[in-house]
Amino acid sequence: MSVKNKILNDLKKISDKGKAVHLSRFFKTGKGQYGEGDIFIGVIVPDNRKIAKKYFKEISLAETEELLRSPVHEHRLNALIILRLKFEWEEEKEKEKIVKLYLKNTKNINNWDLVDLSACYILGPWYYKNKNYSQIYKMARSGFLWEERIAMLTTFYFIREKDFNLTLELAEYFLTHEHDLMHKACGWMLREMGKRDIKPLLVFLDKHGAKMPRTMLRYAIEKLPQHIRKKYLAR
C-alpha cells in the first residue's frame, strides 16, 4: 500500500460526519461563500497533525502533491502539514523543491486555515533567507484571494525576525481590499508587529487609521492600551 493510501485510510478511520457538517459551515462552503464546494470529512487539526507526523519522513513529494490536489479539505491540510514538517527537516535542495511545489499548487491552498498553517513556515523562511520578494509581490497583486493571503501571512516569519518593512508595505497595499479575510490577515500581522515593536504600528495607524477597514483596524489595535484603542476608534 502506498504511503498516501495509508494516510487516507488513517484519516477515514477517524472521520466524523457530525464534525464534517460543523466544519463545512464554519469554513463557509455554501454557494457564493469563500469556501464554496469544499468537502469535509470531519477530522480535527490535532488528529490530522498526528497522522502527518507519523508519515512525513516516509511519503514522497509526488504523493504529497497528490494529497494537496484532493477535493477533500482534510487531505489538503494533511499535505500542507507534511510539507511544513519536511521543510523543517530537509536539506536546502529539498527545501527549494517544496517551495516550488507549494507555489505550483496555490489554487489548492484555498481556505484561510490552509494558508495560515503553511505560508509563514514554508515561504517565510525561504524568502527571508533569499531576499527575493518578487514572488510575494506577484501573489499580492494576483487578484486571487488565497494568494493575496499567502503573501501577507508569509510576512509573519519576517515579523518574528523583527523585519517589518514587507508587512507594512503589503498592509498599505491592501488597505482598499474588499474582503474581510484580508482585513483580518492584515490587522493580525500589524498586531503581531506591534507586540514586538509598538512604534511602527503607531506610525502606520497615525497615517492610515482613519481610512483602514474597521475590521483591520480592530485587529491591529487589539493589544494596545485602552486609551490608545479609543483614540483610533474615534476617528
TrEMBL record:
Q: What's a Pfam family in this record?
A: DNA_alkylation
Kindly give the SUPFAM superfamilies that the UniProt entry links to this protein.
ARM repeat
Quote the protein name from its UniProt record.
DNA alkylation repair enzyme
